[in-house]
């Protein structure tokens, strides 16, 4: 029988859409990269526990399950304005581990966006078609590829008007800002089994200072130790945000209730009105 399948395409922004505030893991990754360079090491960034603790948006896992079950041939992508390096070296692989789901490749990053950093759905869709048309031969025909773009594709992002070319394809979601500041030095020493002496190295010290991340080393006196404690506590109290979030849970409810069978312009508009 001829293959007449067509996909549904879900595209998710990452920061503040499917995860909260990524600042601490990013800083951890910068420091770990520097230490790897110094030690010629290959320690891999791991923040899956932090994701499970709350950085991963609640109910996102449920939402993925829901779309896989309710939309035939769901193809799921991420599209972030982060750098290509960070997207492919830590960010997405950690999310996948915590989520228990692998996104389609490639992971789209800022290289696909316009110079002003607004996102481009035509850029990523043209790229998707290269791979998807192997699985869905009908997509080689413009009639069908246009149909899928117009009716079966949805892009979810927390920044209003973040899509330059096809703004009506965006479902806007409220920003998810979960954050728990932590002691990066302590985590690096403990989790990656790194010798604490590395924090005597001027390159590492400078990086920690640039990132405003507190640390101790063999030169730290009693006052420095007290101050260190104070800064960690200050950061914790200032940037801790563990507000509950039900966005994806509510979205499932609405999509069920209004029997959203496709993602044409009207349905996306409807979802935007109902959820925001
Ligand atoms: Mg975002």
Task: Describe the protein's architecture and organization.
The protein is of the alpha/beta class and 276 residues long. Helices cover 49% and strands 7% of the residues. It has 2 domains: 8-179 and 241-275, Rossmann fold (3-Layer(aba) Sandwich); 184-239, no CATH class. The chain has helices spanning 23-39, 48-55, 60-70, 84-99, 121-135, 142-151, 184-191, 202-210, 222-239, 247-257, 265-275; strands spanning 8-12, 74-78, 153-157, 170-172. It is elongated, with a radius of gyration of 22 Å. The structure holds magnesium ion. The site of magnesium ion has 7 residues, from loops.
Unreliable stretches covering 5 or more consecutive residues: none
- Radius of gyration (Å): 22 Å
Arithmetic mean pLDDT: 96
End-to-end separation in angstroms reads 44 Å
Strand tally, please? Answer: 4
Q: What is the name of the CATH architecture of the largest domain? A: 3-Layer(aba) Sandwich
The total tally of domains equals 2
Please write the CATH class name of the largest domain: Alpha Beta
Structural class call reads: alpha/beta
- List the total number of helices: 11
Short key terms for the protein model shown above:
alpha/beta, Rossmann fold, 2 domains, four-stranded parallel sheet, 11 helices, binds magnesium ion
